[in-house]
Amino acid sequence: MQLFIYGMLGLPFVFSLVAISGFLSNSVLHILNRITATIVGVIFAEMLMQMSPGEVFNSDYFYLDALSIWVLLIVVVLYVASAWVSKSYLVREHKRGYLSRTPKLIGRYYSLYHLFVLTMMLVLLLKNLGLMWVGIEATTLISALLVSFKFTRSALEATWKYIMVCTVGICLALLGTMILYYAQLTATGTEKALSWLWLSQHGDLLNPSLTKLAFLFIFIGYGTKVGLAPMHTWLPDAYSEAPSLISGLLSGALCTCSLYVLIRNLIIVVPTIGTAFIMALFFVFAFLTIAIAVPFVVVQRDIKRLLAYSSMENIGIMIVGLGIFSSISVGATLLHMFNHALIKFVLFYIAGTVIQEYQTKNMMRIHGMVQEAPHTATFLLMGMFAILGMPPFGLFFSKFNIIFSLFKDGQYLLGSLMILLLAGILIGILYHVMRMLCGRAKRKAYADLLDHTDTPFLAVLLIVSIALGMGLERIPYLNSLLLEASQIVVGGVHL
Q: Which of 206, 228, 324, 357 is the most buried (most CB within 10 A)?
């Protein structure tokens, strides 16, 4: 198992060095990029075949259980998908975008992209909370370089905002981690400092006051990286200015990794501080996040910022599911993570294609896509239906179960409020999408730029989302994995 882990981490690192060297042509880099990601995917698949859903791998530095495997699966799927569709996207950008201005940018992009994925996988594989924090900080540094990749004024401004806001958040998370370490020091001594497995087994020995203070800082810190309001100010700018493939990874993979670290800390503190404080904390920030997203969705003109605020909405929904802290809500939250990641990656890729076709982000200038770019229009409509939680897509089932859990828990007012807020999001997104799809074109598109490589991968991601919603129980391994991961969160640790 250790060799598999080293292979998954080593291959992206080696390729990043090769890509940044500048010795290879762009066509060779495109091929090696696909080969590297595919081999990593095969290695991960082999790992899954050798581990049952309830099995645990534990070494000096690495720890794998159902929860980490579930999130790692999300990252690997997006990694492979983005690698296979990147060539067509980057070639189009090279013809009519920012990549044409400077040579060797594709090599630089591939190097940073693979390092970005490497840091996210490290976060999910490490067993020490302190090292997890280091991994999250590394994702910030690498992703900041990707956000600024276009090197325009707006991209640089978005990068600085991203760095400054997230650095403050990460520092608060570090402070919380240090307080948690002090609580461990006073309760159990220096043995296995900040080991997640050790703390999860002895969390009830920690001082309640120190633990509550530690988790407050940890929640705010990692909540900043996730994109919770009011610490969300970096998110719309970063998602809008980053290359569209990276925007999809920021929303689908990085957000999920940050939420994963928050969940790991949550498991530790629940036995000590109980669920009442956690529920109140999570609900306040979650509903604030969703409420702030609604008006910005309605008045939005930038298509990528629209998707960014949609990400905020879904982040809020996931935090609500965690705050309820029941088997149904936590399982629905983990399922929501997966479906949201797949769908949002598709949508950001389609948004990037729309921008390439029409040379504008302004949705008010785009009309008649059904006639001008029918393939892109089809995927845009399907993706928007999926992200809004329309059946048969997977988000319908996870949203339904989270809202159902609210009512089941007696939170009738909050359940009704969530339905109203989600209705506002639905109306806003449908309004913008229908304006883009229908009517007479006022701005001529270059062409329908989706090619034979893009279409099958985007279609597969949407089909997988449907399968995860409607037929998860018919996929025994994934169903068992989800149940085991939920049990780790709400019912203790499997040894």
A: 228
